[in-house]
Design brief:
196 residues
């Protein structure tokens, strides 16, 4: 009987701890207010090249957003546009931001000064895809409390640098042809030895 009482007390303690957990521990995109106005420098549809081109991202508080007193940091990311998410589960949007895979490429995370901007050179490891920009306002615990993103009809394209030049392709072709010719030659020699 005492054991059952202890189990019940422990269960109540766990439930109470779960009820008193901070409300902002899990952020859902659909529940975040859209208080940041975000713009990016590329023209819609522009093609950028990894390692070469730059993007200037600007953010500010919407005039009708109210207060931003709890905003301690801003995190800006490149996000896959819906066209680049089709049939790619590893890029899919999820309402629970801990499970969301849309915005995988951080542009910057810095103290929130109100309005701000950053110039970002497109990294070499950014995959070829269509993107837009999203900025999150973070509270002191690092939880997303608000966001903003470029307009829904605004997207730009990134072409990644593969590092495969024409000379490498030619060399690969020559070595492939040489290996096939060598294989045929040795096969012919072995067959001739067997017949003799």
């Amino acid at each position: 009987m005492a054991r059952q009482g202890m189990v019940m007390a422990l269960l109540l303690l766990v439930l109470a701890a779960g009820c008193c957990a901070p409300a902002g521990a899990v952020a859902y995109l659909s529940k975040l207010p859209v208080t940041l106005q975000v713009t990016a420098s590329p023209a819609s549809g522009q093609v950028l090249h990894g390692g070469e081109d730059e993007i200037t991202v600007t953010w500010s508080l919407n005039a009708t957003a109210g207060t931003d007193a709890e905003y301690k940091k801003v995190k800006v990311s490149l996000c896959y546009a819906p066209v680049s998410q089709k049939e790619r589960e590893w890029r899919k949007t999820h309402d629970d931001l801990k499970k969301d895979k849309t915005c995988q490429f951080k542009v910057t995370e810095q103290a929130y000064p109100g309005a701000g901007n950053v110039t970002y050179r497109v990294a070499l490891d950014i995959p070829t895809a269509t993107y837009y920009v999203r900025a999150y306002a973070l509270d002191a615990s690092g939880t997303q409390v608000a966001y903003g993103q470029t307009a829904t009809n605004y997207n730009f394209n990134v072409v990644s640098i593969t590092g495969v030049t024409t000379s490498i392709k030619i060399a690969a072709g020559v070595f492939s042809a040489f290996s096939i010719a060598s294989l045929a030659f040795f096969f012919f020699i072995e067959k001739r030895k067997k017949n003799n």
